[in-house]
Amino acid sequence: MIRLEKRATPSKQWSLAAPLLAVALTMIAGGIMFAALGKDPLEAIRIIFWDPIFGEFASYSRPQLLVKAGPLILIAIGLSLGFRAGIWNIGAEGQYIMGAIFGAATGLAFYPAELWIIFPLMVIAGAIGGTLWAMIPAILKTKFNTNEILTSLMLVYVAQEILKSMANGLLKNPEGHGFPGSRNLAHYPATSNPELIVGTGAHWGVMAAIVAVIAAYILLSRHILGFQIRLTGESPRAARFASVRPNRLIVICMGISGGLAGLAGLFEVTGPAGQITDKFNVGYGFTAIIVAFLGRLHPVGILLAGLLMALTYIGGELAQLQMSIPAAAIQAFQGMLLFFLLAMDVLTNFKIKFGTEAA
Amino acid sequence: MDLSSFDPVVLITTMMIAATPIMFAAIGELVVEKAGVLNLGVEGMMIFGAICGFMITVNTGSPFLGMCAAAIGGAVMSLLFGILTQFFLSNQVATGLALTLFGLGFSALLGQSYAGIKPPSTPKLDLPILSDLPVVGPILFSHDLMVYLAIAIVAATWAVLKYTRIGLILRAVGENHDAAHALGYKVVRIRLLAIMFGGACAGLGGAYLSLVRVPQWTEGMTAGAGWIALAIVVFASWKPWRVLLGAWLFGGVTFLQLYLQAAGVDIPVEYLSMSPYVITIVVLVIMSADKNKAAMNAPASLGKVFHATH
Lengths: 359, 310
Hints:
The structure holds 2 protein chains of 2 kinds. The mean pLDDT of chain A is 86. Chain A has a domain at 70-309. In chain A, 70% of the residues lie in helices and 3% in strands. In chain A, helix 1 packs antiparallel against helix 14 (327-349), helix 4 crosses helix 9 and helix 6 packs antiparallel against helix 11. Chain A has helices at residues 12-36, 41-49, 51-54, 58-84, 92-110, 118-144, 148-168, 204-222, 224-234, 236-241, 246-270, 284-294, 299-323, 327-349, and strands at 2-6, 350-354. Chain A is an all-alpha fold. Chain B is mostly helical. Chain B has a single domain (8-114, 132-297), classed as ABC transporter involved in vitamin B12 uptake, BtuC (Orthogonal Bundle). Chain B is 71% helix and 0% strand. Chain B is built from 14 helices and no strands. Chain B has helices at residues 8-34, 42-60, 63-87, 92-110, 136-140, 145-163, 165-175, 177-182, 187-213, 225-235, 240-263, 269-273, 275-289, 291-297. Chain B is globular. The mean pLDDT of chain B is 85. The chains are: A mainly alpha, B mainly alpha. Chains A and B meet through helix 7, helix 12 and helix 14 of A and helix 4, helix 10, helix 12 and helix 13 of B.
């Protein structure tokens, strides 16, 4: 008989090995899925994980890696702080949208002025937009004890409708010949978020992601707030004795994650996406949840997990072009990854013993 | 704006249809939560049920078989969650989210070639005389069987939880799994069965969307219905008959916003479309504002990991 025995402290080795094992298992299960679709599984795996970096068209796809990883890492870093403390903000997609709307609206308000101050103002507005949107579930949680999981998620659908309304109304391009969508922010120097280092894909959002990783690392390992976050997650009772104020923590964690998601949205809409349209967002807010867990809620882990997840996006597009593997297969693939990771976590927290207990 | 076409009978019948998918999903989740398990994957199971039911119905021509397939599909999906949380002792919140993300992706994959197809229609109840009665006929005797099934499941759940031994054991497991375990009840087995029941119900709800309510398959067609079902369980304070009320209320809101859109009210369509979600938030806030009451009704072991050491 197989028994599980709880470890006194989570195993360090398994904590690192579990994500790798999960990736390997996902490749196997994904291979089976591709085979079931009638595609060559080995070739599919190669195209998804190898070709974007080393393949024939790698010079095009390599910069995309940072473009896609940037927002994922930025959002996931924010989410990980809350997740560690048991605060479940799963509405990052909505905060991302609101950040983009706030930021874009600020930039468009100045059109056609060309001042250097415009872009920094847009960045601030983006962060404020995301933070404000995240404050709704945070305040409902602290004042009325409303479940933040449900409210933050409901607000994604609300944000989506606001986005539609903006793209077809207030922010619509007056010279757009009636097409929905705003002016293209990437076309105006004052509002654009260009590639900073040629050939790398690194734009301001990628820089912000790197800063966020470092800041989160310092916060968690050196700052009292990071200690409180970790303490609350590991032992809420001990946290109360250590006079951690849970409500304050909820507001801070939700605020930071909302702000970072808003920033990610702003950088996306001014750079890769270029304009506000009713579906410029592509679900980074949800994928970032997977990134956060895959990275073990640790800043460095999230950095690596974000790059890996970006790889599956780009590889997925390649696989779609070359093998006509549907885009949805990649989404299922990413979901599978989270499943395997959660399953493998049992090895981190428990020892597996064979045979019955000798007692 | 033209409100002259307003017809209360249409309101009630449409409301009952709009409420059915959420009623299925919510009553299933209620049983799961009563057993002490929080499954946030309702959305994923619903959409998987929607595509399973749709595929089988289109291929066999039988909505009945489609509904069966949807229930089985939902249960199989929920079993993934069940195995992970009950045997691998994973975090229930994270696993539920994984189920939703995976379900959305996987169903989109399965549904590739089914977009734009019209499924065979589901037969409606047609009783002589009764169905032709004015007012009462359309409201009580002219729906498809699934509407009645949803209400029957709610009633059955209420009766089982309140009056039977099985219901008592289920509630015991949800209130205090250690005590239930000490009494010799198989906590894990009972929870797995509850999770599968929840999955089957969510699957049925999803299939009702794709086969009757819309009826068509589109990617991500559940559009948050699973999450609203979760909210309705909170609204219902874990009481079955209140699920009925909550689902109908929600159905009413859905009907009203669609009606106002059609009547050309001077409110942008987007703001009407977001109203069900906003109202769900408002209702959640009202229900949870009274801390003592909200905490009293939730099963005490909800969301906690059970690990038997003996």
